[in-house]
Specification:
alpha+beta; Aminopeptidase; Alpha-Beta Plaits; 4 domains; seven-stranded antiparallel β-sheet; 22 helices
Length: 825
């Protein structure tokens, strides 16, 4: 017995000494947390150090950013749980039906995500503190809990902010709000490399960080997920419960447990006298946040917001005369992080029980969503997105389906074939299916934090039916590999034009010095009919000896099917020598960036060209834009922004002269304000109908709610396209546009109204204010103002929004390649 007691005593002593030898973040880094910002690689170094020192911490690299910074998650639990980590993971998935098996899980799984916005930088500092406290003073919670920490979701943005701050900060730090260290330069550290807001990208996974994170997230499917943020400097700390509106699929348990989490946090904040608020501002609706995406996947998804943001630096005077320090901010995040783990550990059994219940998906109004496969490229893009989220899909069987028609907004019938796609709600992730495919989002409150419509059939451009009955289906067919062969007798090769993949193929041809043409009119040849926009690659335009080899190689790489024809004499339509069959020359493209430019919209354009179209552009700083030699470029794109100091009278005159010589100027979103109601251009704003009461007699308490009557917060409207115009080649006559603003413009009187909202256009899905919606009918969507040999393209709605509105992207490619590109400049 003495030996046993001595052994236990010795073990406890060694364990105590071992804990004492583990360095805290401050000891490891050589400075106190809060004394400076820690660069990302040093944050990673600390997590590596702890995982190499302790057997109850495991570090896993799950990806890499565009700027080649590593992405890691750390698993923290008891030594026994870490040894059994894979079984715990599988048990958790099998109890939901995501993988086969009927095992039960008894461990709570808590995922803490830090620094999704790079300049909200206190959270990565807090991540290190949280790791240390969990493995030293809070080990008891780890007996029944797996804690997963992602210390930095956005390393590129974080280092952009930290590097800038370290360059400009005063020593000691200056707390004056007007100090240079509190005024970030464009584009700020908030977004990632391509200037995307990663907190709006969870569902769409357009960015490498999101795509890689979703893969590992879906391997675990945690019960609790927290996204740590910062808001502006004068706000108290925000934590759960969230604000309305809540999406209807959110369970009572999810809402109730958020209240319990909030009460647990309040206990610690009350003790310290720290201010906080709940149930305001941050709702649970838009599905692509770091709180909503996990919520729709069964977790208790929450956002925590600490005052600070990129303005705060190491310390700043708030409007209340207090100094808000980085140390304070990190301490507050540490407190809520630990409190989250505590209450989750105390409720591990209930978390698992309710988590399993969430995956019962038998009672939805719509049992199946059927999408017509009229465009294999679009279908493959949607399949890839569903694969990312591990959502199952199948093919319909030949026959007819009946249900809500997304195009007509009525119950209709649709003939289907074995090529059409069906996604059932009766699957483990059926609630996410409902959220992503539902025709209309149910809104219980018009005051929301983001867009209110995102339905994938509209975003991807599908004819679709939502059926109240489960549609008969079979497992999805495999896509056949396209293999083109060389035909030395070919007069021309023909390739379709109706998808982004076609545009990427075109860009590859141009980069390989192959000159294609496109037909402005439909035609038939060799027993096949072709639509406007069809690419025609003539041997006569490409007299290189390796023409066939290069062309076929590029087509096979991009999986484009080409038809070889031995003559340019068509059965109907225009022959290949017609003036309506125009060459497409290499386009030199400039994109405005910098101060005044919306960093988000610039990022969407940059990302589109660089990663999707894979065609080179030149990014031009707005400070130099007025002095630019425009003649070097064929296309100039002006993203949404506020350009009063950039697009001056002189600069606009230069742009108009350049356009007259054959250039294509593309203006998007708010950039149209620089052209509207200017006598030099034909664009006119549509005037709102004035309220008959001049004085504002609305009670103060109701003014915020009344103000939304003038807003459109990301909702879908049906529009009409003139698809005989090159800008709309590849589209049908109807297009569903995501409107992000209540600003409307008159039809062009001197120009081409290519996309427009006619007198019958209406709000299809999402919130649109009663006043703003009146201005949409008989207004412009996409227009072309011809100036001399060139064009100004007005894009009222942003077709590249967050890169998830897939059906808008071809408009940009059309504007770049099919307008004014037939003549070398």
């Amino acid at each position: 017995m003495k030996i046993k007691v001595l052994f236990i005593t010795a073990f406890l002593t060694i364990g105590s000494l071992f804990s004492q030898t583990l360095q805290s973040p401050s000891e490891f880094l050589g400075y106190e947390i809060g004394a400076r910002f820690t660069r990302h690689h040093k944050v990673v170094d600390y997590f590596k150090y702890v995982s190499s020192t302790l057997s109850n911490v495991k570090l896993e690299k799950y990806g890499e950013t565009n700027e080649h910074r590593p992405l890691y998650v750390s698993y923290i639990s008891s030594k026994e749980n870490i040894a059994d980590l894979e079984n715990i993971r599988k048990n958790n998935l099998s109890q939901t039906g995501i993988i086969s098996g009927n095992a039960k899980n008894k461990k709570a799984i808590v995922w803490l995500s830090y620094n999704v916005h790079g300049n909200e930088a206190s959270s990565s500092e807090a991540a290190m503190l949280t790791l240390y406290e969990l493995v030293t003073t809070k080990k008891a919670w780890l007996e029944n809990t797996i804690v997963i920490i992602d210390p930095c979701l956005n390393p590129d943005g974080r280092d952009r902010y930290v590097n800038w701050y370290n360059q400009v900060k005063s020593t000691p730090f200056n707390t004056d709000q007007k100090g240079k260290e509190h005024v970030e330069p464009w584009p700020s550290g908030r977004p990632n490399h391509y200037l995307f807001d990663l907190n709006r990208d969870w569902a769409w996974a357009t960015q490498v960080e999101s795509e890689q994170r979703i893969a590992i997230y879906n391997k675990w499917m945690p019960h609790v997920h927290v996204d740590f943020h910062e808001q502006y400097i004068n706000s108290p700390y925000y934590f759960a419960p969230a604000a309305a509106p809540f999406h209807e699929i959110i369970s009572d348990w999810q809402r109730d447990f958020q209240v319990e989490v909030g009460k647990n946090h309040a206990k610690y904040f009350d003790k310290e006298g720290w201010l906080y608020f709940t149930k305001e501002s941050f709702d649970l609706l838009y599905p692509s946040y770091g709180d909503t995406y996990p919520t729709y996947m069964g977790a208790i998804g929450m956002t925590y917001e600490q005052a600070g943001h990129g303005m705060a630096g190491l310390g700043i005077n708030t409007d209340e005369g207090e100094v808000l320090t980085l140390k304070d901010r990190a301490t507050h995040h540490l407190t809520t992080g630990l409190s989250t783990v505590e209450i989750s550990s105390n409720n591990a059994d209930k978390l698992n029980t309710e988590f399993v219940k969430f995956f019962d998906n038998n009672n939805f109004k719509y049992k199946s969503y059927v999408l017509k496969n009229e465009n294999e490229d679009k279908t493959n893009r949607l399949k890839a997105l569903l694969d990312t989220h591990e959502i199952k899909y199948e093919n319909t069987k030949n026959g007819t389906v009946k249900g809500y028609d997304y195009s007509t907004q009525k119950d209709e019938k649709m003939t289907v074939s074995a090529a059409d796609l069906v996604i059932h709600t009766n699957q483990s992730k059926g609630k996410m299916v409902k959220v992503l495919f539902e025709p209309k989002t149910q809104l219980v409150d018009s005051l929301t934090y983001d867009i209110t419509s995102w339905s994938l059939p509209y975003a991807h451009g599908f004819k679709a039916i939502a059926s109240k009955n489960k549609v008969s289906s079979s497992k999805s067919n495999q896509t056949n590999l396209i293999t083109n062969t060389i035909d030395k007798n070919a007069y021309a090769y023909i390739s379709k034009w109706n998808s982004l993949e076609d545009a990427t193929f075109l860009g590859a041809l141009l980069k390989a010095d192959i000159t294609p043409r496109f037909s402005e009119k439909p035609f038939s040849i060799a027993g096949k009919s072709y639509k406007r926009g069809t690419l025609i690659i003539l041997r006569n335009d490409n007299r290189n000896n390796d023409f066939d080899v290069k062309l076929v190689d590029i087509a096979n790489k991009h999986q484009r099917e080409m038809a070889a024809v031995n003559s340019g004499f068509v059965s109907s339509g225009v022959d290949f020598g017609s003036a309506s069959v125009k060459p497409i020359n290499q386009q030199k493209i400039a994109v405005l960036s910098g101060k005044g430019t919306s960093s988000l919209n610039f990022g969407e354009v940059w990302h589109f060209f660089e990663t999707q179209l894979q065609y080179p552009i030149t990014n031009i700083n707005s400070d130099a834009f007025g002095y630019l030699d425009y003649s070097k470029y064929d296309v100039i794109i002006i993203p949404s922004g506020s350009y009063r100091k950039v697009l001056t009278k002189t600069t606009l005159e230069k742009l108009k002269k350049w356009t007259r010589s054959g250039g294509t100027l593309i203006a998007i979103g708010n950039a149209l304000n620089s052209f509207a109601d200017n006598k030099e251009f034909s664009l006119k704003k549509k005037k709102s109908k004035k309220d008959s009461i001049k004085a504002n007699l609305t009670p103060f308490a109701d003014r915020e709610r009344k103000s939304v009557a003038n807003l459109i917060t990301g909702s879908v409207f049906n529009s009409t396209l003139d698809n005989t115009h090159p800008l709309a080649f590849g589209y049908d006559k109807t297009y569903f546009s995501l409107k992000l603003s209540g600003t409307s413009y008159e039809y062009l009187k001197d120009g081409n109204n290519i996309g427009y909202f006619n007198e019958n256009s209406k709000n299809i899905s999402g919130y649109a204010g009663s006043m703003a919606v009146k201005n949409v009918p008989e207004s412009l969507l996409f227009g072309e103002e011809k100036i001399g040999n060139g064009s100004i393209i007005y894009m009222v709605d942003n077709p590249l929004f967050r890169s998830f509105w897939e059906n808008g992207k071809l408009f940009v490619a059309n504007a770049v390649f099919l307008l004014n590109s037939d003549k070398l400049k």
